[in-house]
Amino acid sequence: MRNLLLTLVLLVGLTGCATHTGKPLTSWYEGGNRTAILDFIQRTTDPNSPDFVPEAERIAVFDNDGCLWAEQPAYFQLLFAIDRIHAMAPDHPEWKTTEPYKSILAGDTKALAAQGEHAILELVMTTHAGMTTDEFDHSAREWLATATHPTTGRLYTDMVYQPMLELLGILRAHGYKTFIVSGGGIDLIRVFSEEVYGIPPEQVVGSSIKTAFEMTDHGPVIRRLAEINFIDDKAGKPVGIHQHIGRRPVFAAGNSDGDLQMLQWNDAGDGPSLNLIIHHTDAEREWAYDRDSHIGKLDKALDAAQAEGWLVIDMARDWKAVYPQ
User: Fold this and answer.
1) Pairwise pLDDT comparison (190 vs 113), residue with the higher score
2) Is-contact 68 179, C-beta < 8 A?
3) Three-state DSSP state, 36
4) For residue 237, which of 245, 83, 43 has the smallest C-alpha distance?
5) What letters, b where the CB count within 10 A reaches 16 and e where it falls short, cover 138-166?
6) pTM of this prediction?
7) N or C: which end of the chain has fewer CB within 10 A?
8) How far apart are CA 72 and CA 113, in angstroms?
9) Phi, then psi, of 306 in degrees rounded to 5
10) Are 89 and 277 in contact (CB under 8 A)?
11) Per-residue pLDDT tens for 150-206?
């Protein structure tokens, strides 16, 4: 069913952006933001346009949490680790008085979120370090196939944003290569990115822990180590783009201050560029939050968007639908 959805999204994108016929981006309301996106795609893919970008240079990067799928009441990778902590807790009585485990076992996700990304990475290392990459892959697939969101009751992979699926599709239909550049764990995102977004694992950039090759009695494995390798957030995002992609993007999308440096890097290129920020303004269909949120805080990046003329996508006003139906 999901592959059919992605096929339909791609077909929508093929219906002629240059003439704006065929109603591309059907889950977007008519308006300035939708028009600006379509115009940018037209200008950068028309060989007769002064803003034409050769296909090899058409790089589009997207944050994941809060940009391609939801991120409240906590980052989904954190909820994945929390489920594992509860399963492992009987063997670790010391966790009842030790952070960040104490907050988890008490159900205090706000206190946990306030401890920042390093607390989250510690949880990820605790729950999945020592596994082989194949074992982690199996664990993640099993969780994604069965775990449901505490508020909506949906599978987490059903909480992707329909308008962004359409945007990914129309970009690819016009020769753009789409990448995820996320502060989330690279190995978790790679498990579902191709099936859900149409983005293959080699086009995912994310935070990671160190790994090591090991020869076992059953053959070679790659084992996950309890040591941080790279944090792909804030200033780490342009570094990750340079290391993994090797080209400066021309299209970038994010939703928080963690994406600010990625957007600045995109904006600083010599040729045309487009930045957009997803602004969570829809408390009825999703959540409304920005400057004061522990999750997906949007403060400095929102100011930068207003100063630099980046597109700010108002979820309530710009999107007809939020999740796939």
Assistant:
1) 190
2) no
3) helix
4) 245
5) ebbeebbeeeebeeeeeebbbbbbbbbbb
6) 0.90
7) N
8) 11
9) -70, -35
10) no
11) 999 999 999 999 999 999 999 999 999 999 999 999 999 999 999 999 999 999 999
